[in-house]
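Give me the fold.
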Amino acid sequence: MTTEQLIERACLLEQKIRATPELGRLDLQPEFIRVMNRLKATGVQVPAHLKRTEQVLNDEMIESQFDNMPV
């Protein structure tokens, strides 16, 4: 995949993520992270909106780990 195709794929996934309820977002996270890692490996400047989406997904994943923790 070219860099442009990777960015396009990441943007499409980002749109799906934004349109999906929180529980469904975690299902899309692995593919989004794979595309982001490939983008970063090319050395290209990753758009800020994709970085923000990546951070939000990471935060949601961490938070979901504590949802079933007994108090």
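The two ends are 47 Å apart (CA to CA).
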